[in-house]
């Protein structure tokens, strides 16, 4: 039933570790996103994929690498985790269409805590 | 140019009152202005959205007012209810860049 799902819900890890967050959508959308929400609740785009092609890559450290094995999945791999990476990461999806006004559906988020 | 400025940061309203949240943008390329509602521990969910060819859109108790010349838009919640207590984000995007640029959020508390 879940439109956009993410695993895990919570992730606690040590500095320097490598971790992955998985995202799946069953809406048949062709565009997927990763957003980061910091401790002040500010939401910012990190990456956007359309049909498995990277179309937006904001100024994100190259320790973050998104991977889209197919249109329904967009995973986020983070190398050498740092304290500042602690945040809630949201996956979202939308149907691209020809206009900008296509609703983005967000997943429940993954709370990453780096110790 | 990508910024969307949102105010107030927090808002306390009595049940039955009107909640008003304001946003301003700089980038005139923006052509889609959604409002998202986020409850604690949940992802943002679309509440209502507007395009710049209309000045107002109403859905139930929620209304967006849009002023293109001033580059401002606002969310009005009529008859505010305790269940409306959440964080509200304005956002903007434009054709060619599907990603949303979010405002900083407004924490709304509706007191019974």
Key attributes of the depicted protein:
heterodimer, A: 115 residues, mainly beta, 7-stranded mixed sheet, 4-stranded antiparallel sheet, 0% helix, 55% strand, B: 112 residues, 6-stranded mixed sheet, 5-stranded antiparallel sheet
Number of DSSP strands of chain B?
11
Task: Give the number of helices of chain A.
Answer: 0
SSE class of chain A: mainly beta
- What overall geometry of chain B do the principal axes of the alpha carbons give? globular
User: How would a crystallographer describe the biggest sheet of chain B?
Assistant: 6 strands, mixed
This entry's quaternary arrangement is heterodimer
Distance between the termini of chain A: 34 Å
| SS element count, helices of chain B | 0
Morphology call of chain A: globular
Work out the largest interface and the residue count of each chain. A-B, 31 and 27 residues
Strand content of chain B: over 45%
Query: What is the averaged pLDDT score of chain A?
Result: 91
Give the low-pLDDT segments of chain A: none
Radius of gyration of chain B: 13 Å
**Which strand-content bin applies to the residues of chain A?**
over 45%
> pLDDT average of chain B, as an integer?
94
Q: How far apart, in Å, are the first and last alpha carbons of chain B?
A: 40 Å
Classification by helices and strands of chain B: mainly beta
Low-confidence runs of at least 5 consecutive residues of chain B: none
Order of helices and strands of chain A: EEEEEEEEEEE
Can you give the helix content of chain A as a percent range?
under 10%
Summarize the structure in words.
- The complex is a heterodimer of chains A (115) and B (112).
- With 115 residues, chain A is mostly beta strands.
- In chain A, 0% of the residues lie in helices and 55% in strands.
- Chain A contains no helices and eleven strands.
- In chain A, strands 2, 4, 5, 6, 9, 10 and 11 form a seven-stranded mixed beta sheet that branches.
- In chain A, strand 7 and strand 8 (73-78) form a beta hairpin.
- The mean pLDDT of chain A is 91.
- Chain B is an all-beta fold and 112 residues long.
- The chains are: A mainly beta (115), B mainly beta (112).
């Amino acid at each position: 039933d879940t439109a956009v799902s993410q695993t895990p819900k919570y992730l606690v890890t040590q500095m320097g570790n490598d971790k992955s967050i998985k995202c799946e959508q069953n809406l048949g959308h062709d565009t997927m996103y990763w957003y980061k929400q910091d401790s002040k609740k500010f939401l910012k785009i990190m990456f956007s994929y359309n049909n498995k092609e990277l179309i937006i890559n904001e100024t994100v450290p190259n320790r973050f690498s998104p991977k889209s094995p197919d249109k329904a999945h967009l995973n986020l791999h983070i190398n050498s985790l740092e304290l500042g990476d602690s945040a809630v990461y949201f996956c979202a999806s939308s149907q691209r269409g020809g206009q900008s006004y296509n609703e983005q559906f967000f997943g429940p988020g993954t709370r990453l805590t780096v110790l | 140019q990508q910024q969307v400025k949102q105010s107030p940061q927090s808002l306390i309203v009595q049940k039955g009152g009107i909640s008003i949240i304001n946003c301003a943008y700089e980038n005139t390329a923006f052509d889609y202005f959604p409002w998202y509602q986020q409850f604690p521990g949940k992802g943002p969910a679309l509440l209502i959205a507007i395009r710049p060819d209309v000045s107002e859109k109403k859905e139930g108790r929620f209304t967006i007012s849009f002023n293109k010349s001033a580059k401002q838009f606002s969310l009005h919640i009529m008859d505010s209810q305790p269940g409306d207590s959440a964080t509200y984000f304005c956002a903007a995007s434009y054709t060619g860049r599907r990603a949303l640029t979010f405002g900083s959020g407004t924490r709304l508390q509706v007191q019974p």
